[in-house]
Amino acid sequence: MRVGLLAILKVVAAVLAFGLVLFLLDRFLLWCESRGWIYWRRRKASPGTAGTAFLEVQAMLEPGKAHVVEERTRVQDEREDEGDPPDPSRAR
C-alpha cells in the first residue's frame, strides 16, 4: 500500500513541476515579447514579416534575388525617414 501512495505522490510532484516550468517559460516569453525580441501571445507579427524573412533566406540561396531584398529595405527605410525633421547638414 505504501508503494502505491509513494508512486502517486511522485506523479503528482512531476505534474506540478512540469506545470511550474511551463508557467515560468510562459512568463519569460512574455517578458521577451515586452522587450520586442519575439512575438508570443499579446502582439501579432506584421503581415509582411514572414514574407521578408523568406525573401532573406531566398536571397542567400539565390544571389540574384539579393537586389529585391535591398530594394525592399531601401523603400522601408525611406518610409521610416519620412517623418523625421530635415537634416541641417543637407539644407545648404
List the main descriptive attributes of the protein structure presented here.
92 residues, mainly alpha
Overview of this protein structure:
The termini are far apart. The protein is built from three helices and no strands. It has two domains: 1-41, no CATH class; 45-82. The radius of gyration is 25 Å and the shape is elongated. The chain has 92 residues and is mostly helical. The longest helix is centred in the N-terminal third of the chain and has 33 residues, at 2-34.
Write a brief structural summary.
Helices cover 68% and strands 0% of the residues.
The helix tally amounts to 3
Q: Roughly what is the average pLDDT, rounded to an integer? A: 78
- Outline the low-pLDDT stretches: none
Order of helices and strands: HHH
Decide which structural class fits the backbone.
Answer: mainly alpha
How much of the sequence lies in strands comes to under 5%
User: Distance N terminus to C terminus?
Assistant: 91 Å
The coarse overall form would be: elongated
In total, the number of strands is: 0
Radius of gyration: 25 Å
How many independent structural domains?
Answer: 2
The major pleated sheet works out as: none
Q: Helical residue percent?
A: 55-70%
